[in-house]
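In this section we walk through a basic example: taking a raw amino acid sequence and producing a predicted 3D structure, encoded as discrete structure tokens. The instruction is simple. Fold the sequence below.
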Amino acid sequence: MKIIGGTASLPIAEDLSHLLSIDLIKIETKRFPDGELYVRLLGPVENEEIIVIQTTFPDEYIIELFFLLDAVKRAHAKSITVIIPYFGYGRQDKQFKQGEPISAQALATLFSINVDKIITIDPHKDHILDFFTIPAYGISAVESIADHLRTKNINVVLAPDKGALERAQNAAKILNCDVDHLEKTRIDGTTIKITPKTLDVKNKNVAIIDDIISTGGTMATAIRELKKQHASKVYVACTHGLFAGNAIEKLQNAGCDEIIATDTIQSPFSTVKTAAVIAKTIHDFSR
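The resulting token sequence is shown next.
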């Protein structure tokens, strides 16, 4: 078994190589003068079980992954498992308007070519896994996030909405604390109040946990409301930190005490590593 790390996920590949004590095959990438991508494997893969790790965000890393898979297949690998830490376009999982593509399904169909197995971390919706035409598995980073929060003396874990409550419940169970979800109440035509459904957060340390933080708008509003209710500290944590635009500024200006994300997308806030949960899954498959 050998590992190949794409440009977007090389730190995860390096961690996984260390945890599993298996070789990491280096790759060469460069851009031609016209901007097209060149990819080359710098090690043998013939008759090997190969793990390719690549987050598919932003778009350029999708192309890199396709080229890596083609190169591995042409080099006669025995089998190919693809680990997609963050599956880009996962939120376009149905037709919201006539004439739209189902982008998640289109990508899943293409990723199923030349591949034996897919693993992704905290897909936006579980039914995305059904889009692949090969065995596809979703694994959770919640335990790793909860482990990081152990030192924060968390009293309450909040889900940003009722639909995300299961994730918050799993984290709260690990942290042995209360759990609730945020509820939006419209005050008037322009004012929305966001409060915990049942719990009082006064003088408590609160962690809001979600799968993705993108623009940060809803999180920032929640932080402000929780601070108004005299929460001692408010942490926001997610698996996939997209942090689009001025999301970080919004969260910090709202009074967030710490922004926590995993390394599925590399950023200054990628303090939670995912290699251990990936290694456990690979170990389970090899039994």
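Looking at the output, two observations stand out. The first helix runs from residue 10 to 20. The longest strand covers residues 178-186. In the next section we compare this with other chains.
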